[in-house]
Structures are given as structure tokens and as C-alpha cells.
Input
Amino acid sequence: MAKKQTYGEKAIASKLAARKMTKVIVSTKGPKGTVNYRETMIEIDKVADFLKNAQG
Output
């Protein structure tokens, strides 16, 4: 059976309430020459700020 879809204001409100997330993987080089990876799930709007802080 197909899922019943909602239309109108209810559908618009649910789309706006859903947070859009992305996975960011930052690599760093360790003291012995190994590469370490750090994964983080953050909101799409905050990606630029996260990368700016991760570099510095």
C-alpha cells in the first residue's frame, strides 16, 4: 500500500521543520605521519563556520 501524502499547509510546515543535515569529514595529520579522520553530523547552514573553526 502506498503512503498517504499530505498537501497544503500541513505539508509545508513539516518540510520547514525538517532539519537538513550533512556529514563532514575532516582529516588531520598525526605526529607520526598517520592521517586521522573525524566525522561530524551538522546542519547544512553551519558547514562554513565548522570548517573555518576546524582549520584554525
Q: What stands out?
A: The chain is about 30% helix and 30% strand.
